[in-house]
Amino acid sequence: MKNLHFGAGNIGRGFIGKLLADAGVHVTFADVADELITALQERKSYPVRVVGSEVQVDTVTNVDAVNSKNNQAVLDQIASTDLITTAVGPNVLNIIAKTLAEGLALRIDQGNESYLNIIACENMVRGTSHLKAEVLKHLDDSYHAKVEALVGFADSAVDRIVPPSDSDDILEVTVEEFSEWIVDQSQFKGDVPDIKGMELTDNLMAFVERKLFTLNTGHLITAYLGALAGYKTIREAIEDDAVKADVKAAMQESGEVLVRRYGFDAKAHAAYIEKILGRFANPYLVDEIDRVGRQPIRKLGPADRLTKPLLGTMEYGIANDHLIKGMAAAFFYINEEDPQAVELQAMFADKGLKQTLAHYSELPLDSDEVARVEAAYQALKSA
Ligand SMILES: NC(=O)c1ccc[n+]([C@@H]2O[C@H](COP(=O)([O-])OP(=O)(O)OC[C@H]3O[C@@H](n4cnc5c(N)ncnc54)[C@H](O)[C@@H]3O)[C@@H](O)[C@H]2O)c1
Ligand SMILES: O=P(O)(O)OC[C@@H](O)[C@@H](O)[C@H](O)[C@H](O)CO
To answer: Per its UniProt record, what SUPFAM superfamilies does this chain match (predicted)?
Structure first.
């Protein structure tokens, strides 16, 4: 089996590319980072340090790469591969959608009638379905029937903490032991692939929300409260008892929504939260607060890790003081190198918290929740 993977970054090399290559799939990475691509083309392998109580260095082989700036090379890959995966970040999906559309048109024009499956591996609810809608926008109507018949767009949930590596080797990546990749099997076209490490489900929404609204909700609040307390890494922040108490309480509020919505076992969900708190404190990973706090506008969005759980607590009448506090903490997050952090702060300075929050979260301006976030912000400011 051949795979084309967009994004040779942390998750691309450290998780999805590794898992597929380990399963005997030939992986070709596509990326815009010239140095990374040249190194992959020359070496056709790279090291992955899996760190837990022991350190194991695995060598990933059977890989190649194409530079995404070489459009024709990428189109040729799309026209001939069996599986396409992405780990580029939600904001980049719209960019690669255009390339995918061109590649699918070429594939159909060349008469390739074999099945192709596409899986976006991003922190986003139904990211592949979003990608599909974008691809179809760029594709002439005359191709749509063939795409519907031959191309599967399968949504997935992806979980492994992979911070950028500080190695001198540009290809080396350091990952935690834990990993989970769950894919919606009902959306595949042709045979559902049997790949070790790729779990299949008919109930993807439950798993994607469980992951995003537990791990990522807690991770983000750790980052914002941690930054406010002056910490630089997630581990430092979560080892502060006051931060940990707030983060855990917010995860429990969000968890209560998940238990009610999807029928998860309450005890098992409590254990899931504890395990994640342990992963945040992993002494073998150095995960900067700025990586986890990045792109606050995306993360304040109505379908993302702060607002969506908050909406769930409102729907079920569940307490939400800690989710509110986490949202308030986002307004203290300063990062001059992150355009979204700069934009958020600029609007906050110009229009105030209520209007800024209502704008990005789509919560009603006059809602109690928006007023409570502002009150929580003032309380944090004077603490
Ligand atoms: N790192 C983690 O712990 C983790 C865990 C689970 C999910 N994720 C998700 O995985 C996705 C990728 O995260 P990451 O941490 O690997 O980010 P990353 O920045 O390490 O990797 C993204 C890669 O995409 C490349 N890229 C950018 N534009 C591109 C384009 N137009 N074409 C091809 N490649 C392009 C970048 O050069 C980079 O190498 C995100 O959606 C993230 O939320 C990350
Ligand atoms: O990748 P983001 O920016 O959506 O979120 C930052 C982290 O919370 C995230 O990358 C986690 O490390 C990951 O989701 C763990 O599976």
So the answer is: 6-phosphogluconate dehydrogenase C-terminal domain-like, NAD(P)-binding Rossmann-fold domains
